[in-house]
């Protein structure tokens, strides 16, 4: 349900801000990858008013200083631009195909891990800056991040079930106690009717007294 709401808000915002240029690194703005592997840093742009000589670059935040990874000017949509690459083991794979400006990092090292910014500026909208940030986490072996989440969810569900069972046990116990109390009340009613009986007994004694005249 949360996801749905997020999606609705997300699409509302994208409709609302679609006028301007928008850089997007996708729904999941981070990636965990093993050293030595090859990864794609995703980025696409979108603009309602269209682009003309769109300047874009990728920057790597190296300990606070932004290092250009690559840069280019895209004359128009659908044109494969010439991209200048400043770093080793980097390829421009987006090729501006469907506004795709993704890059490929080959044979990643631990030093490649960090924050990457996909930056864009459209002269059509008075050189306003737009960017999106993607995080690359380099590990020496994939840790099962999802598993911990599954365990958390499982234990939460388990806890909820335990709580529910506890509640039901408590409910049953309460019902049991209530039934017992009711039984006791019935007993009380019985005893009160017993009192009636004693009254009857009294009348019985009257009845007993009746035979006395028989004795007469
Ligand atoms: C990744 O890093 C680990 C630990 O530094 C190393 O043992 C391993 O050989 C590396 N793998 C690759 C493919 O570079
Ligand atoms: C990164 O920054 C820290 C302090 O902010 C500094 O001590 C360290 O030398 C820096 N490392 C590099 C490689 O620049
Ligand atoms: C962008 O291009 C890359 C490389 O071809 C591809 O892996 C990725 O799926 C593309 N992204 C979109 C949104 O089309
Ligand atoms: C990948 O990088 C490691 C060290 O970082 C190097 O030994 C290896 O030859 C590289 N492989 C390729 C295919 O570039
Ligand atoms: C846009 O980014 C450039 C650097 O690429 C910077 O010099 C400029 O001040 C930024 N403009 C705004 C309005 O943020």
TrEMBL record:
GO biological process, one term: regulation of ventricular cardiac muscle cell membrane repolarization
Signal peptide location: 1-20
Region (Disordered): 196-216
Signal among keywords: yes
Subcellular location: Membrane
Top-rank taxon, per record: Eukaryota
Broad class of where this protein is predominantly found: membrane
Record membrane topology: Single-pass type I membrane protein
Protein's recorded name: Sodium channel, voltage-gated, type IV, beta b
Organism in which the protein naturally occurs: Oreochromis niloticus (Nile tilapia)
Gene: SCN4B
């Amino acid at each position: 349900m949360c996801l749905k709401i997020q999606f609705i808000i997300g699409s509302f915002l994208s409709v609302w801000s679609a006028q301007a240029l928008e850089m997007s690194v996708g729904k999941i703005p981070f990636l965990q990858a093993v050293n030595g592997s090859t990864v794609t840093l995703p980025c696409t742009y979108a603009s309602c008013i269209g682009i003309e000589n769109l300047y874009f670059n990728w920057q790597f935040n190296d300990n606070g200083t932004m290092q250009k990874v690559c840069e280019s000017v895209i004359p128009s949509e659908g044109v494969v631009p010439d991209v200048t690459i400043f770093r080793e083991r980097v390829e421009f794979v987006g090729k501006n195909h469907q506004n795709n400006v993704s890059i490929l990092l080959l044979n990643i090292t631990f030093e490649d891990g960090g924050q990457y910014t996909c930056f864009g500026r459209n002269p059509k909208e008075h050189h306003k800056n737009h960017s999106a940030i993607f995080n690359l986490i380099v590990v020496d072996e994939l840790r099962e991040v999802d598993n911990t989440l599954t365990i958390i969810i499982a234990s939460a569900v388990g806890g909820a079930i335990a709580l529910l069972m506890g509640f039901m046990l408590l409910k049953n116990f309460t019902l049991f106690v209530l039934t017992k109390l009711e039984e006791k009340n019935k007993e009380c009613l019985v005893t009160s009717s017993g009192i009636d009986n004693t009254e009857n007994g009294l009348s019985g004694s009257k009845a007993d007294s009746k035979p006395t005249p028989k004795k007469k």
